[in-house]
């Protein structure tokens, strides 16, 4: 199934397959976010989801439809979908409307990502004993993907920070936002930051408009995304340090002739990290959703032994960024680049450990009015 989505949105797939540098084997940070959010999702479903608004309990049409937007290739999407399903089942079974004539809920899950996503790996690793029907929905979530009022629950974890496109001003030598010798807005002039911020706002306006049409009244949307506390610059957070070090590694390679400085000048990571205040303003501006929960969470609190190693950070970044870097610079530099990045992050690992325990992800529950 495909939809009326935005064909102009750029695609940035994670590393597919089942290899050493695949997303499948290097997404433990995302898994930590899923684990931390699971109890919060359960609480949101129990406290906020009013099934009586969504169904007639004596109707034969009792299919609960869930969409995971930016699902990537697993396994984290399966964990999240099962968590949601179990929470809704619990809510349904304990509902005061439940009676002997009610039909049991059936579940349909839509897995969405760009057309270039490795859906083959995703579906070859589906849980054998899943309790839901499945469908793939390829396309950008910055546009429409589903018919009007067809979804009851939307979930998106660590996907919305990807921009649909890089702001054109960053590549314009005559613009104050020309991002020379940098690959992100961390540590860049304010004009660069504002260009990123404006593009993110445009993307979120389109995202919220699309979901407002697709969700039924009373339906819930859970969004989990990288975040910074209000008034804290990204350069003060671990993710900002990671992006700066990747840029430094690329600039080191220009001085040794691996790549040209012009190649670095024309490369920018299409990622924006939002604050709670910004998200509240965007949701309020849309007007179709009420904010039921909004919290900064600490995803690393569930990481085994509490240690974030330089190797883990490097492997995670490579799984997420290798595709977009290869597309721009070619594949010959990848091993060298991430070896250099690893050495830089290793030098700072002691400084990053305390920061990694801070609230760095936004957990947001919206209800369709």
Describe the secondary structure blueprint for this structure.
Blueprint lengths: L27 H21 L2 H4 L8 E7 L6 H18 L12 E8 L5 H6 L8 E6 L12 E7 L32 H25 E12 L11 H18 L5 H5 L10 H11 L2 E9 L12 H20 L4 H22 L5 E8 L1
Parallel strand pairs: 1-2, 1-4, 2-3, 4-5
Antiparallel strand pairs: 5-7, 6-7
Helix pairs in contact: 1-3, 5-8, 6-10, 9-10
Plain-language structure description:
The chain is built from 10 helices and 7 strands. The chain is of the alpha/beta class and 369 residues long. It has a single domain, classed as Vaccinia Virus protein VP39 (Rossmann fold, 3-Layer(aba) Sandwich). It has a 7-stranded mixed beta sheet, sandwiched between helices. Strand 2, helix 4 (119-124) and strand 3 (133-138) form a beta-alpha-beta unit.
Brief overview, please?
The chain is α/β, with parallel strands linked by helices. The protein has helices at residues 28-48, 51-54, 76-93, 119-124, 190-214, 238-255, 261-265, 276-286, 310-329, 334-355; strands spanning 63-69, 106-113, 133-138, 151-157, 215-226, 289-297, 361-368.
Q: Return the structural class.
A: alpha/beta
Can you tell me the overall shape?
Answer: globular
- Highest-level CATH class: Alpha Beta
CATH fold label: Rossmann fold
Report strand %. 15-25%
Strand segment tally: 7
Provide the succession of SSEs.
HHEHEHEEHEHHHEHHE
Low-confidence stretches: none
**Largest beta-sheet characterization:** 7 strands, mixed
Measure the end-to-end span. Answer: 27 Å
Q: What is the total domain count?
A: 1
Q: How do the strands of the widest beta sheet line up side by side?
A: 3-2-1-4-5-7-6
GO biological process, one term: methylation
GO molecular function, one term: metal ion binding
Organism: Trema orientale
Keywords: Magnesium, Metal-binding, Methyltransferase, Transferase
């Amino acid at each position: 199934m495909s939809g009326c989505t935005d064909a102009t949105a750029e695609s940035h797939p994670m590393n597919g397959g089942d290899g050493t540098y695949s997303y499948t084997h290097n997404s433990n940070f995302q898994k930590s976010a899923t684990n931390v959010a699971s109890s919060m999702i359960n609480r949101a479903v129990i406290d906020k989801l009013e099934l009586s608004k969504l169904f007639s309990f004596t109707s034969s049409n009792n299919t609960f439809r869930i969409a995971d937007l930016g699902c990537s290739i697993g396994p984290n999407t399966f964990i999240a979908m099962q968590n949601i399903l179990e929470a809704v089942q619990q809510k349904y079974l304990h509902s005061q409307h439940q009676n002997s004539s009610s039909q049991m809920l059936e579940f349909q899950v839509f897995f969405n990502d760009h057309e270039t996503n490795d859906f083959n790996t995703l579906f070859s690793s589906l849980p054998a004993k899943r309790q839901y029907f499945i469908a793939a929905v390829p396309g950008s979530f910055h546009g429409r993907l589903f018919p009007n009022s067809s979804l009851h629950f939307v979930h998106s974890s660590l996907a919305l920070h990807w921009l649909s496109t890089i702001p054109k001003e960053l590549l314009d030598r005559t613009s104050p936002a020309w991002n020379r010798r940098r690959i992100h807005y961390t540590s860049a002039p304010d004009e660069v930051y504002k260009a990123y911020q404006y593009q993110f706002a445009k993307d979120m306006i389109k995202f919220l408009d699309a979901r407002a049409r697709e969700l039924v009244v009373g339906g819930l949307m859970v969004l989990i995304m990288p975040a910074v506390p209000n008034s804290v610059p990204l350069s003060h957070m671990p993710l900002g340090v990671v992006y700066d070090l990747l840029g430094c590694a690329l600039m080191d390679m220009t001085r040794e002739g691996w790549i040209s400085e012009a190649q670095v000048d024309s490369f920018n990571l299409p990622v924006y990290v939002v604050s709670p205040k910004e998200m509240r303003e965007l949701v309020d501006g849309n007007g179709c959703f009420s904010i039921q929960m909004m919290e900064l969470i600490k995803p690393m609190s569930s990481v085994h032994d509490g240690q974030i190693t330089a190797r883990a950070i490097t492997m995670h970044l490579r799984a997420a960024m290798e595709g977009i870097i290869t597309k721009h610079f070619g594949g010959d530099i990848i091993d060298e680049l991430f070896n250099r990045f690893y050495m830089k992050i290793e030098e700072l690992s002691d400084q990053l450990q305390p920061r990694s325990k801070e609230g760095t992800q936004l957990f947001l529950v919206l209800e369709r009015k």
